[in-house]
Amino acid sequence: MTLLKKLQWSFGLLLFFFVLPVIAGQLPFNKQASTPIKEPEDKQVVFAATNLPEQSALEQTKEETKNQAKEETKDQTKDQTKDQAQDKTQDQTQDPFKVLLLFTHSQESYQPMVKAVSGKAAYYDEKTNIYNLKDTISKHFSMNGIQTDVLDVDVMKELKLKGKSFPDSYNFVRPYLAKRLQEQSYDLVIDFHRDSAKKNATTITHNNESYARIAIVIGAEHKNYRWNTAYAESLSATMNEIVPKISRGVISKSGDNVDGRYNQDLTKEMILIEIGGIDNTEEELNRTIAVIGKAISKSFNTGK
Fold it and tell me: Angle CA(279)–CA(285)–CA(289) in degrees, nearest 5?
């Protein structure tokens, strides 16, 4: 055998062994022995977040917007609460209903009260008199939300010191009252007096308790007559709602031997109240004063 044939034989043998596995894999009997092909698993594919910075910025913006909305809601709630508090404070700080008290016949007195103090029966007294009821009246009015000032002049005492008489009372107190009304404004001015009528006309019983009756006097000879009358009628009606018949009504006075104005021409909001008579007790007067305070508040103090 020549060298060339040997080389050809060797190369053919090598080629046979090289392709033999491939041929064997294609034969039918070898397919059963082959390694089964694994089905690919159904896995979720997660892509890389290439826009992560943009997403973070968006989420941050949403969070900031949400926080801003919360802050705005808080601010609105605070503002509403503040406004409500201001409204409440404003209501509480509104000017109270103001009443001025005066006692033109300052030493008119009640017989049972004078007798309890001095043992004597008197209708006028320098110490125990209607003028001394000013503190009781102010107290009861204050309990009903009414601010009370007193024209602090003992008119009848001053009349005596100046040598004047009882009929001069209204003219004497007039400049004092006019000056006060120029300095301050009032929602109501009341001149308190004691009636000269006896007990049967000036006393009433309600729920087993006795009260001093009142009468409201209006001078009919001046420009403010109708205004004063309106205040008087309103107060009288309200008092009778609280205690029936405690008010004897509104009495208009004009003509001879009466004053006809009682200084009510100085202001539209002025009335004269006759509280009780010469026979009324301190307890009866106190009960009636309490009713007057309630009636003023109910009649005129709404919304003040």
Answer: 150
